[in-house]
Request: fold
Amino acid sequence: MSKSKDDRFPSLGIALYYLRKTASVSREDFGRPFGLSSKTISEYESGHRRLSPARAEQLIEPHGFGPRDLDEILSDIETRRGVISPEGTIPLPPEELQILAREQRELSAFMGSELGRLRRRARARADHITAGELFEHLATCTPEERRLFVTRAEKYRLWALSVRFGEESTKAAPDSASRAVEYAMLSLRIANLAPASPRFRVLLRGQAWAFLANARRVSGYLPRADKGFARSARLCQEGEGGDPDHLLDHSRRLDLEASLRLQQNRLEEALSLLDRALAAGAMGGAAGRLLLIKAFAFEQCGKPEAALKMLERVEGHLGTDTDKRLVWVLRLNQAVCFCHLNRFEEAANLVPVVRALAIELRNELDLVRVLWMEARTFAGLGRVEEAISSLSQVRRNLVAEGISFDAALAALELAALHLDQGNPHAARELAAEVEPLLRVQQVPRDLIASLFLFVQALEQETATAATARKLLRVFEHRGPIDSTSWAKEHR
Reply:
């Protein structure tokens, strides 16, 4: 009795063979965890022994492969393999034999290409695991020790460790701006040293520069952040095509830069960057993060209702395994929008929620943001003394962290509260602190001029709380203000 083509050329056996070769494992070692001989593995691969999908999945699992890998290669085999004439049947005509020969050559070429792709993918998974182990060790070291290890020890020059330090930089930012910068610098250092193809290394450096630019943004150094993103974009363009296996997340640079553009009030650019990142196919938590940034863009545009609707969309991307900080940002942004809409009771109800999440996340700067939000709800509910107390603590914390621009904003907000209380002297002292904080940030001259006009109005006792809040909004959006019209308004 003749065998069917599936018996003679079993797709499962072919898939098992190529996955085993991808893992660079001998038949003997492949079967050892299950007490199987190399002969048994050979019989599985050749089709002389029946192999079930469940058994195949069991055999490949110790080597980092799963059902998805098996299904993918099986699908490709079935779509590309030729039709083989069973034994004992009439020989195929010459033209069909030519077709068969061509299809078999295509299958062979495909398998060679597929084998390389699978090997690179398996190696990338292993690299990420190794990077995690190396990072856990380095995280226990001092900054000086980390730099020394990365510079002198070859095993720390792993491309995946550069990516890991970059992502850890974004996670560190809510807790410590200085640690975010340090981690991003390590990401860049590793990228410069990593053994890789020239174009891939250029792309890796481009991504590392994006992480560093983001850390500088968090630290309040926006001009330096701007230069960092420009350099990142140039490197990514130079390295185009250097990552055929998509080992790097090329949408990451876009969403990090979008956060800077929002902070610079360049809203159209930010939205364009976010749309490009979403078009890259972001799913789950990644899509939720991008939608959160879009919601922030609407809030910055003065559209809190639209921002709240966008935040509702974000909730659809949340699951039980969602990053808790994503949830924290969502709730905090909801509270911000409620304050813009004078719905201070609803904002106040969210404060305990965001505080509990911040405590769980153990991020110091997140707790500062919560305190800032609480101060605004206190002010909105008429509890001005409590608002002043909370906001004063916020300002001290931001100064201690070296986040000068946000410290300046907190000082201006405090000045407005003191003017509400009829205390222009305290407002003058706070305004005097703002100018040196802004100098560090290379703030445009027209904004510094606006601040001087406000200080003059305070000295002449013509400044009001509304004046202070108008100036605060200008600085929050980093937009220029016409000094002549300002002077006319407050003459």
